[in-house]
Amino acid sequence: xxxxxxxxxxxxxxxxxxxxxxxxxxxxxxxxxxxxxxxxxxxxxxxxxxxxxxxxxxxxxxxxxxxxxxxxxxxxxxxxxxxxxxxxxxxxxxxxxxxxxxxxxxxxxxxxxxxxxxxxxxxxxxxxxxxxxxxxxxxxxxxxxxx
Length: 147
Prior knowledge:
This protein is an alpha+beta fold and about 150 residues long. The protein has two domains: about 1-35; about 35-145, CATH 2.40.50.140. It contains three helices and seven strands, in the order αβαββββββα. It has a five-stranded mixed β-barrel with strand order 2-4-5-7-6. Heme chaperone required for the biogenesis of c-type cytochromes. Transiently binds heme delivered by CcmC and transfers the heme to apo-cytochromes in a process facilitated by CcmF and CcmH. It is found in: Cell membrane; Membrane.
C-alpha cells in the first residue's frame, strides 16, 4: 500500500471514529434531556407523549392529597391544570400555593406520574419559564374578563 493510501485510510478511519463518538454522545444527551412545559402547553398537546419532561407552575391550594407515600396534587399556571401523582418523600419546601417543577411522564389514565419533585428555594424565586407562564396566563385571563 502506498503512503498516500495509508494516509487516506487513517483519515477516513479517524473521521468514522469521530462520527461514531459524536453519535453516541448526542444519543446520551438526547435521552437525558427533560424539556420544560407549562400546564397550558401540556393541555395544547405540545409536550412529548412517551418521553419524560418537566411541568412547572404553582401547586393549587387544597389539591394535595396524601395516601401513605403517594401524593396527588395539581400543578397550575392559573389557566390550565395538570394532575400529578408522586410516590416518595417530598422536598421540605413543597407546599400548596407555592411554585414547583415536576419531572416525569403521563400514565395511560391521563395523570402525570412524577419521578422527581423540585420546590422553589425561597420566597422570591420561581423558575423563569414558570414565571413567564403565570404572567401570560394572567394577561389572558384579563383579556377574557374585559370581553
